[in-house]
Amino acid sequence: MGSCRPVAFGVKVQIFPNRAKLAKIASTIPVSSVPAERDFPLQDRIKTSIRNLLADEKVTRLMGISSLGPGLKDFNFSRAAEHFHAMKLRRK
């Protein structure tokens, strides 16, 4: 008997290759839109009328920091200031 390919999601890949592909694809589809719906108010808090000229990439990075970064109570402002002062001047 030949070697059997691995089992993916309980489906034998060798016998049902299309079903195995479908199971892999279906496992990546989100079951709700809650994470996306949370991002809209977050984006609105970051991109205000005053900061309307922020580039999309900058807004995306700020949203990541805001949602995944430490809270204000846990953030080390002294360390951030030291890191900022240690950086090279980048503007020409």
Low-pLDDT sequence parts: none
Distance between the termini: 69 Å
- Beta strand %: under 5%
Fraction of helical residues? 40-55%
Q: What structural class should be given to the helix and strand makeup? A: mainly alpha
Please give the radius of gyration in angstroms. 23 Å
Q: Major sheet: order of its strands?
A: 1-2
Major sheet summary line? 2 strands, antiparallel
Listing every helix as H and every strand as E from the N terminus to the C terminus, the arrangement reads EEHHHH
Shape: elongated
Mean pLDDT: 78
Number of beta-strand segments: 2
Count, helices: 4
Assembly level:
single chain
Provide a short characterization of the protein structure:
The protein is mainly alpha-helical. It has a domain at 34-86.
Give a written overview of the molecule.
The protein contains 4 helices and 2 strands; from the N terminus they run ββαααα. The protein has 92 residues and is mainly alpha-helical. The chain has a domain at 34-86. A two-stranded antiparallel sheet has the order 1-2. Strand 1 (7-8) and strand 2 (11-12) form a beta hairpin. The longest helix has 13 residues, at 34-46. The N and C termini lie far apart (69 Å). The mean pLDDT is 78.
What attributes characterize this protein structure?
92 residues; mainly alpha; two-stranded antiparallel ribbon; elongated
